[in-house]
Amino acid sequence: MADLDLVIRGGTVVDGSGARPFEADVAIAGGRILQVGRVAGRGAEEIDARGKLVTPGFVDIHTHYDAQATWSSRIDSSSYNGVTTALIGNCGVGFAPCLPERRDALVKLMEGVEDLPEVVLTEGLPWTWQSFPEFMDVLGARRWDMDIAAQVTHAPLRIHVMGERAEAHAEATEAEVAEMARLAAEGIRAGALGFSTSRAIAHRTLDGRHTPTLGTPEAELEAIGRAVGAAGASWLQVISDFDDPEDEFARLQRICAASGRPMTFSLLQRESRPWLWRFLLEKIEAANREGAQMTGQVMARPVGLMFGFELSQHPFVARPSWQKIAHLPFDARMQALRDPALKSALLSEEIADPMLRARLNTWDMIFPLGDPPDYEPRPETSLGVVAARRGVAPAELAWEWLMERGGKAILNRPIINYADGDLEAVRAMVEHPQTLMGLGDGGAHVGIICDASSTTHMLSYWTRDRRRGPRLPLEFAVKRLTRDNALALGLGDRGLVAAGKKADLNVIDYDRLQVRVPVMQYDLPAGGKRLVQKADGYVATILGGAVTYRDGEPTGALPGRLVRGAQR
Predict the structure, then answer these.
(1) Which residues partner with 152 through β-bridges?
(2) Would the CA dihedral through 200, 202, 205, 208 be positive or negative?
(3) Each residue's pLDDT expressed in tens, for the chain with a length of 568 residues
(4) Which of 103, 219, 492, 497 has its CA 20 to 30 A from that of 273?
(5) In degrees rounded to 5, what are phi and psi of residue 537?
(6) Measuring CA to CA, which residue among 452, 410, 440, 397 is closest to residue 313?
(7) What separation in angstroms does the CA of 421 have from each of 302, 385, 425, 454, 524?
(8) Helix or strand holding residue 508 (H, E)
(9) Rounded to 10 degrees, what is the CA torsion of 92, 93, 99, 102?
(10) The three-state (H, E, C) secondary structure of 169-238, written as one string
């Protein structure tokens, strides 16, 4: 008789602590790791991991699967990339609390902020809740291929309490602030791991209305922070433009200190202010010395827009001739694009909006994505440089490259974390002790960004493949993706390959580990499209002792549950 549920035999364990890898068996019973070492007992199932890595499952602290988790049991692309726990409810946008008459406002906001089409959300969301605890109960009844944790989000709170005045950015009354604080604390007591808000001007609906939380007075955020802190929240999550970096950071530090809880915010290198990330890191260091627990959320590669004729954006998308064919199905669009007259018109037209032109037609910052994808492309491989070398117009070359693979070729436009033309700034952010790995944005920006694979990329590229600068130790990268994030969320039961911990694990063929090229799938509600990015090299992903993915494909096991509150 087998006395164990699962034994992983002879793997190289990278345990998440930062310690050097070591060879060991891992025994699992009852969803927990029972033993790490030489296991004499036999498992009902055994995995031969000789020559393979055994790591904790990855903990993704920045996703937007708020909608997907209500209609799908598979939380991909993250689940294809070794993630076993994902945190939703980031950037202050979500779907609870919500009265029936306010649903449209939240849908339009999520559509604009996170690029999830209104028709997809309208058809897909079941709306079987009004309060945040009811939303948690709905999630609690579902099963997934990973565990899900949630946050209370600020925009729904404001709209729920203030109605249209929130969308008009009115200042909340004292009574309204108190009610928002009460409801936020109620959400924490229902099991949310934190509270999130957005102070970013780019977060707006498609018709141009800014997120209701933009410019929220400090007093409101402080009151909510105190309430959720008293209720036991894990943290406060913020995204901000830092237009006045000194003033804004000081404000956030005061809010953090008043709440008595950690605060984390997105830390990125922007093209317009490539120095700002370093300034903010210095502020983070000073804040922690003064007793405020503050961290920057970073990602180990550029945030890149994916350009393609099948995707939501490309260099011609804002040109008048494209608008004439944009509504057509893909095959019909491709047929139209082969018309010499349409091609000539597309190439000759200009984009009037200078900001949009900078995003779509900065030719020296557009690169072939490649296969396998290259997320640290050399400047001399850019569309602009190659066009100049060939003596052709950049628009002509862009059209040529986009027409490859039957019109399904993808170009990469890194808009964040690539102002220097390499990833050395990113390396400094990743190595800093007061940063956390996040910002993959899984479940959002489904037609233009596919960064949920950044977990796989961090291991394969930064520890093995990088040639343009120093690499990172494997044990460091694993620790950043697992134990560091788990502890930051208050999830002490996972993120470590050790006896007594939750049996969330990856068995990885390190030599084969590699992200694939993203592909477009049309499997969202209402036939909506989304980019999905799989990976090679995952021999098995294990959640609570059950194998959920084997050789990169789902097994059908759905042991994932809603995580309610901190886990010891």
Answers:
(1) 195
(2) positive
(3) 368 999 999 999 999 999 999 999 999 999 999 999 999 999 999 999 999 999 999 999 999 999 999 999 999 999 999 999 999 999 999 999 999 999 999 999 999 988 899 999 999 999 999 999 999 999 999 999 999 999 999 999 999 999 999 999 999 999 999 999 999 999 999 999 999 999 999 898 888 889 999 999 999 999 999 999 999 878 999 999 999 999 999 999 999 999 999 999 999 999 999 999 999 999 999 999 999 999 999 999 999 999 999 999 999 999 999 999 999 999 999 999 999 999 999 999 999 899 999 999 999 999 999 999 999 999 999 999 999 999 999 999 999 999 999 999 999 999 999 999 999 999 999 999 999 999 999 999 999 999 999 999 999 999 999 999 999 999 999 999 999 999 999 999 999 999 999 999 999 999 999 999 999 999 999 999 999 999 999 999 999 999 999 999 999 999 999 999 999 8
(4) 219
(5) 110, -10
(6) 410
(7) 10, 13, 10, 19, 35
(8) strand 505-508
(9) 120
(10) CCCCCHHHHHHHHHHHHHHHHCCCCEEEEEECCCCECCCCCECCCCCCCHHHHHHHHHHHHHHCCCEEEE
- Would you tell me the crossing angle of helices 174-189 and 132-140 to the nearest 10 degrees? 20
Residues 295, 434 contacting (CB under 8 angstroms):
yes
- Distance, in Å, from the CA atom of 83 to the CA atom of 243, rounded to the nearest integer, reads 34
The secondary structure of 356-374 as a DSSP string is HHHHHH-GGG-EE-TTTT-
Structure-token match 């693979």, residue found: 405
> Which residue has 């959400």 as its token pair?
187
Q: What is the DSSP letter of 312?
A: S
Rounded to whole angstroms, the Cα distance separating 302 from 454 reads: 10
Cα 485-548-371 angle, rounded to 5 deg? 75
- Nearest-Å Rg of the Cα atoms of the chain is 23
Q: DSSP strand E in 200-352: where?
A: 235-240, 263-266, 294-298, 303-307
Token pair in block for residue 511: 């030599």
**HSE-CB of 363 using CA atoms within 13 angstroms:** 16
d(CA 123, CA 291): 47
Label the pairing between strands 505-508 and 303-307.
unpaired
Question: Cβ distance 114 to 456 under 8 Å?
Answer: no
* Contact criterion met (CB below 8 Å) for 428 and 450: no
Tokens of 31: 């969803």
- SS3 of 567, please? strand
CB atoms within 10 A of CB 238: 27
Rounded distance between C-alpha atoms, residue 101 and residue 98, angstroms:
8
Cβ(416)–Cβ(272) under 8 Å? no
**Distance between CA atoms of 212 and 93, rounded to whole angstroms?**
10
Asked if 228 and 188 count as a contact pair (C-beta separation under 8 A), the reply is yes
